[in-house]
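Ex. 9. Protein: SMI1/KNR4 family protein.
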Amino acid sequence: MADNNPLQIIEQALGITLPGAYVTFLRQQQLMEEGRLMTDLVYLYGLAELAGQNTLYEVQHYLPGYLTIGDDSGGQAICLHCAATDSTVYITGHGALDTGSLQVLSDNFSDWVAQGYSLDVIRESPDILAFRQSDTWQLRAAWQALHLALKKLEAEKSKGMDLKTYLLQKRQLQQEIVTFETLHAGKKYMP
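Predicted structure tokens for SMI1/KNR4 family protein:
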């Protein structure tokens, strides 16, 4: 009877169609019931958990057409798009469920499985890429570079740098920091 098919029950409960490669994987890996730790970090949900986790995090509300299939044991959801033409594997924080925050783990679900469930991001999310172009990111990078230069200078001093050279360079860096912080007062850039 079709009503007892657990795959159809999940699809109806979530209002989605499970991707074909994912359904095949569930059957092959015997995840039709309980989930399993696939690596030391990657936990993939079984059917018994799938609807509950997607409902708990309101995945279909925040990411319509997507399905969270597991997590990284650290607060990030592993997701698939439910379109038949998209087998990309995504990762995003459970608190950042929007398409702009999706980072790509693999362009193909079956390849991701065959390659050992890697959590290495191959393409960053649009939001991260946009942030790296922002004034905030640029200012933060400049501020950090100044403070890193000061830290390196302190390390050089401990290796025997001439005191006069050290004091001159330190004074110059401190003045650059003061100038930078004065010029950008009130702007968000400090981590």
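Check your answer against this statement. The mean pLDDT is 90.
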